[in-house]
Amino acid sequence: HRKLAWEMLHNAVVGPIDVENAYFTAFIKGFLLPCSTGVDLVDIVRSFFGGAEEFVRTAEISTIRGFDSLNIRIVVSIGNQSLDELADAFSNAGPNFAGRIFQDIVKDFLIGIGAPCPELFAGIVDRLSPEVKASLTGLQSPTFRMRLMCWAATGATRVLRDSNPMQIILVEDDDSLYLPEDLNSPGLREAYLSSGSYTYDPNTEVKDAQIAIHHWLFMQMLDSIGTYNML
Question: Which superkingdom is the protein from (predicted)?
């Protein structure tokens, strides 16, 4: 209950969502209802472990203001041959990937703004949960994708400083933690691992590999969000 109260209070007082957001408005109205004991919002802030000063400090350091705010580790755990193949793939994927490394690809997505493919996104937005739909009012925020990742990975739209960093690990195609356990057939395994090639049409919304990757990551994160109600 204490953790839930802290989470609710944090989102209500310093949350990054717009004050006109329906969840924010409803939460504030409910939170300001009179208590039988006379306790009000100020009393709750003062009751935070460490007092009001610690409450403000914790809220300050957990708010996402940019990529450097994230508590994240991006790890490449593949062999030299795979590293060479990855470098070749980047070289052949167009100017957006030239001279880049895996960490750059992740960062480029997170600092991006809006939906990578607005038209494709508009066609599938109805499948999202009501909580996620409500959060889309902040879609054009510079930190939306960062908060989206935190929400999908940790259940909170803020940085959890008191826990281990989020980890994004690039592994080999046959890593035991990556492949589904039921892929026992060699033929099925080969089909699953086949990379193939794809030619992008610059006249379409998915005009290059970067946008295709960003759209995939965007939808994966949206679909991974649980029932938390604020972004």
Answer: Eukaryota
